[in-house]
Amino acid sequence: MKRLQWSVFFFFLLISIWTEAHNYMFKHLEVKDGLSNNQVNSIYKDSRGFMWFGTASGLNRYDGYFMKVYRSRKEDVKSLPENYIEKIQEDAEGHLWIHTGVGYVVYNPDSDTFDRNSEAWLKRKGIEGYVQRLYIDSRKTFWVYVGGKGLYRYGVDDKEALCALVSNEDWAKAGVVDIAEFDGDILLMYETGVLVCVDGMTLKLKWMEDGIASDLGKAYREAFTMYVDKTGKLWIYNVVGAWTYLLHERKWDVRMPRKEGYDAVRAVMQDKYGRIWVGRDQRGIEVYDGGKKSVVLSNDPGDARTLPNNTVTVLYEDSSGTMWVGTYKKGVAYYNESIFKFSLADVGDVNCVEDGGDSVVWLGTNGGGLVRWNRQTDQRKTFMHVAADRNSISGDVVVTMLRDSKGRLWAGTYWSGLNCYDGHRFIHYRHEAGEANTLAYDNVWALAEDRDGNIWIGTLGKGVQCLNPSTGVFTTYANANSGLVSDYVLSICIGRDNRLIIGTSYGMSFLDLDTRTIKNFAGGRSDTEQLSNQSISQVYEDSRGLIWVATREGLNVYSPRQDRLYEVPLKPDFSKLFVLGIVEDDNRGMWVTAGSELINILPQLDEQTGELTFSCRSYNDKDGLQSCDFNQRSMKRLLTGEIMAGGLYGVNCFRPNEIKYNRAQPKVMFTGFQLFNEEVEVGKKYGGRVVLPHTLFETEKIVLDYAQNIFTVFFASDNYVLPEKTSYQYKLEGFNKEWLTSQADMHRVTYTNLAPGSYVLKVKATTSDGYVGSDEAQLKIVILPPFWMTPWARTSAIWAWPTRAT
After folding, report:
1. Which of 139, 305, 423, 787 could disulfide-link to 25, CB 3.0 to 4.6 Å?
2. CA 496 remoteness from chain centre
3. 40-55 in b/e burial notation, b at 16+ Cβ within 10 A?
4. Taking the CB of residue 454, how many other CB atoms lie within 10 A of it?
5. CA neighbor of 749 nearest in space, from 774, 775, 727
6. d(CA 541, CA 558)
7. How many CB atoms neighbour CB 161 within 10 A?
8. Among 253, 255, 226, CA closest to 238
9. Which helix (H) or strand (E) holds 525?
């Protein structure tokens, strides 16, 4: 029965709602990024904030910018004894215990060296013999199993280790292959499949389970791995099976020795939301939420944000909630919901988006026709022009769309006129020379529907038309007959006061839909405030009644109530960006596309001045956006609240309410020091002086000679969510009083020609989402004066002066 339950468990994993997999987007680190080897066996984040990766060929320390590689060197006894790294742990003093292919070695962060003789340290604590397994628990207590002797415990406050023989029975004579903790007790897993619980205080045997041993047979000997989740479920797995045991109830939950078709579990980890991540051999990851719903994560060669390799060797969640994945052939992948805020669907070059109702979205492409996309099933149906089929769409370059109040889809094309799709066929509206009642021009750039059901059409060269779908009658409003500011219409929208707002290549106009008269917009405050540029990409009226005007040189907001025209500072330096699209979210926040950036704008009314103010936050490809310019007027808010933005590489999708911001408080660590652009090594002399007796991150003060006054300090933060967008604030007390802010990804500061004296460098970090860390890293820097400026030299000069005068 239990085997059936396990089979059902994985069945649900395999038939999971795979459409959610796109929400799990990974960043990657591999050999090309500095990793020593792409087979990753162990991952650990130390107390200082560094990430460590143990591979099949070397140990790696990563700070978000640089990868430092540690390897065995024959001539260096303070290097690793062997390059194969199996596991990394940290003790209370910050030393790392590295399990290599030839045993345990201790990394000293103060000297940046390794002590190969870990046996000597253990011996001083009273632990002697061959160490089968060493485990450091959450309280930093050592648990060491020595073959033939038993289990040793050495706590932080203990003077020497306490040892107890677990049992005299035959099963206890086998080797221990893994150690774990649960509620203060210790779990031992033997190579025979026997599971033992030892009292953490008395070191006495509490209970023993031999269910796995009976499943596999008495002669079986193999390694096992254990993981205890937050509910008290013990996961046990190896190449021949997987088992779960309920520790609180003391009973087996699932017992499944390997059968044909079973792919071995290689890693298990529970994330901060309680979801279980199961990494498997050749099958990627299943993320299981405890019910029947799960998500399968695997490599997609066409999507660089998926899992890089389907054989997962290790899973590790760090203190910030980032899930790190070690793979067998493609290095490290890591996931945090705050990294990629925007998913990307490869659906072609998307010019426009329209809501189709339910789970359907219509996409107008640049040469690929019209696409009906079912988001729930990912089914896509493409409608393209077929010369022999009069019911097909008239052209394949679709630049604007509108779903009207009757559910019909209208599609404007480039040089192929207007189409109306009723669910069965496309009705064409084309310009017919010599006909009075016809589409004015075959370049249809904008569409809108008024309250009477009329379809308004913006053409690129012949003004605006009103089409009555019931009668088929066109009415044209152009520069020649109505005074429209320009006949090159790029965008239209229906305003709340029943006006048609028209954006053209040479300004903005308002067409009163009741009187059918046109007024051209000359500016705000009685025409004294002008648009930043007359070439308009899009016009948009928000829920406040503000009119947003996207131009090729900036974004303007017109307040009809105030008769004020504002220019939105999209960038701190007021750069005039080519604004491509505008949309409002359900919380009245505004989103605009500009080049390859997506900018969130929060307008607020200053109660004292009565003026509008705007706060802006920018996102780019590092946040998950496509790495190319967005298309003009390609943004759309769906009825579900989801926003889509189209570009050359598809469509980015996001729900503003579901964006997860990186609110973690980053801690800064000093990572490197250079003199005259040369990296300073620990213990090495420069100008006759050892600059770094210890590693920089363990150093409080640096003393330099007066001639060593050109130096660079490198720093990083312990937050690995988009370190390339992390900015740093710094000041050198004794040199400047104000905090200075670095550009994003600038994680160093250089000083030249500082006068002799004592200084304190202070640095703090700001996350990619603008949250500032409260902790400041501090480094005291002393620059010694030259001999002639020392007090002794000055005193000698004073005493010598009378003699010279005489």
Report:
1. 305
2. 39
3. bbbbbbbebbbbbbbb
4. 19
5. 727
6. 9
7. 20
8. 226
9. helix 524-527
Query: In the predicted model, what is the mean pLDDT of residues 255-266?
Result: 75
Question: Which of left, alpha, beta for 131 (phi over 0: left; psi -120 to 50: alpha)?
Answer: beta
- The Cα-based distances of 366 to 8, 416, 561 in angstroms read 45, 13, 39
What would the DSSP string read from start to end of 68-129? EEE---TT-TTS-S-S-EEEEEE-TTS-EEEEETTEEEEEETTTTEEES-HHHHHHHTT--S
Q: Closest by alpha carbon to 315, among 294, 329, 333?
A: 333
**Beta partners for residue 59, in sequence order:** 54, 70
Residue reference for tokens 């000293």: 108
- How many angstroms separate the CA atoms of 450 and 704, rounded? 75
Burial of 64 (0-12, 13-18, 19+ CB in 10 A): buried
Beta-carbon-side half-sphere exposure of residue 665 (alpha carbons within 13 Å):
4
Separation of alpha carbons 269 and 630, rounded Å: 38
Q: What is the largest CA-CA distance in the chain?
A: 118
Half-sphere exposure of 762 toward its Cβ, with a 13 Å CA cutoff?
15
Which residues lie below 8 Å from residue 181, measured CB to CB, with a gap of 6+? Answer: 135, 137, 138, 143, 187, 200, 228
The strand pair at 701-704 and 777-783 is best described as parallel
Tokens 């390609």 locate to: 634
Q: What is the DSSP string of 538-558?
A: EEEE-TTS-EEEEETTEEEEE
CA–CA gap between residue 721 and residue 433 (Å, rounded): 59
- Backbone torsions φ then ψ of 670, nearest 5 degrees: -80, 130
pLDDT digits (tens, 9 = 90+) for 295-308: 999 999 989 999 99
How open is the CA angle 107-108-112, to the nearest 5 degrees?
95
553-561 long-range contacts (CB < 8 A, ≥24 apart) are 553/577, 553/578, 554/579, 555/579, 555/582, 555/592, 555/594, 555/601, 556/531, 556/532, 557/603, 557/612, 557/614, 558/521, 558/524, 559/524, 559/612, 560/497
What pLDDT digit, counting tens, does each position of 699-748 carry?
A: 999 999 999 989 999 999 999 999 999 999 999 999 999 999 998 889 99
Cα separation of 562 and 141, whole Å? 69
Q: What six digits make up the tokens of 714?
A: 């490198």
SS3 at position 612: strand
Contact (Cβ atoms closer than 8 angstroms) between residue 554 and residue 575: no
Distance CA 208, CA 250 (A): 10
CA dist 393 to 161, 402, 421, 427, Å? 81, 15, 8, 8
Side-chain-facing half-sphere of 291: CA atoms under 13 Å:
2
The amino acid at 640? T
pLDDT reading at 253 higher than 90 = yes
Query: What is the rounded average pLDDT of the residues 130-138?
Result: 97
In whole angstroms, give the CA distance from residue 190 to residue 169. Answer: 13
Query: Residue 232 corresponds to which tokens in the numbers above?
Result: 């008290």
Kindly report the backbone phi and psi dihedral angles of residue 481, in degrees, each rounded to the nearest multiple of 5, phi listed first. -105, -15
Q: Do the Cβ atoms of 631 and 322 come closer than 8 Å? A: no
Contact yes or no for 513/548 (Cβ under 8 A): no
Left (φ > 0), alpha (ψ -120 to 50) or beta: where does 150 sit? left
Task: Please write the tens of the pLDDT for every residue from 182-239.
Answer: 999 999 999 999 999 999 999 999 999 999 999 999 889 999 999 999 999 999 999 9
Gap between the terminal Cα atoms of the chain: 111
Is the per-residue pLDDT at 13 higher than 50?
A: no
* CB-count burial class (<10 Å; 0-12, 13-18, 19+) for 529: middle
